[in-house]
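Our collaborator T.R. sent over the components below with a one-line note: 'Predict the complex.' Nothing else. No constraints on interfaces, no templates requested, no preferences about which chain binds where. So this is a plain run: every listed entity goes in together, and whatever single assembly comes back becomes the starting point for the next discussion.
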Amino acid sequence: MRPGPVSSVVLPAQATGTRCYARAAGPFIGVPVEHDELIDLVSDLFAVISAVSSYPEPYHLPPVQLRPLSELQAMVCKGPCQLRGFYMPRKGVYLNDTLDIRNDVIARSVLLHELVHHVQELSGRFDIVPNQCDRWWSREREAYEIQNAYLRENGNGVRFALDSLPYMCGDR
Ligand SMILES: [Zn+2]
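Returned assembly:
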């Protein structure tokens, strides 16, 4: 049985809470992903996450919205920035609408990465990490690991790594 529907409610633009940034892919012109198709895809990706991690599939799906880059930038960037997507607790996943999540496994892996942040949030698994930056870092590391496992299982050689992000939690 599938969990509840993905909300299509347009949420207010407010940049708070845990965020995850990823650089945007090139322009994509395609057929928009329909509501039911998105629900199926999100459900399938949560099943993948559950299979490769200890996270159970959530009973309710978070809102997932494909939006123009300019709209995403207005939500989380002070100026122009390149974004593939981000997750906001209690608001859900926002994805760059140039991502071809129907046909491109790398684009789908970006969605999966953001969905990992949702199950992390639900589980509270990293709440015990006292430092906010370390907490963010731990979440990202796990999300990239699960994203890479997904790519590997789909025979894709691309790997996402925290190496591409500066370590910003102070001196070690
Ligand atoms: Zn992330």
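Summary for T.R.: Residues 1-19 have pLDDT under 50 and may be disordered.
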